[in-house]
Amino acid sequence: MNDASDAYDVAVIGGGPAGLAAAIALAETGANTALIARRAPYADNRTTALLGGSVDFLQALDVWPRCQDKAAALQTMRLVDDTGRLIRAPEVRFSCTEIGLETFGYNIDNRALISALEQRAAELSNLARFDDEAKTISPDDADVALQTAHGKSLSARLVIGADGRQSLCREAAGIAVKRRELNQAALTFNIGHSRSHRNISTEFHTPQGPCVFVPLPGERCSVVWVTSPKEAERLIALTDDELSEAAERQSHSILGRVTVEPGRYVFPLGIEQPGQFAQHRIALVGEAAHVLPPIGAQGLNMGLRDAADIAELVREAMTSGEDPGSPRVLQRYDRVRRADVRSRTFAIDLANRSLLSDFLPMQSLRAAGLHLIGAFGPLRRIAMREGLAPWWRPTQRVG
Ligand SMILES: Cc1cc2nc3c(=O)[nH]c(=O)nc-3n(C[C@H](O)[C@H](O)[C@H](O)COP(=O)(O)OP(=O)(O)OC[C@H]3O[C@@H](n4cnc5c(N)ncnc54)[C@H](O)[C@@H]3O)c2cc1C
Question: Residue 1's pLDDT is what?
Answer without folding.
Answer: 40
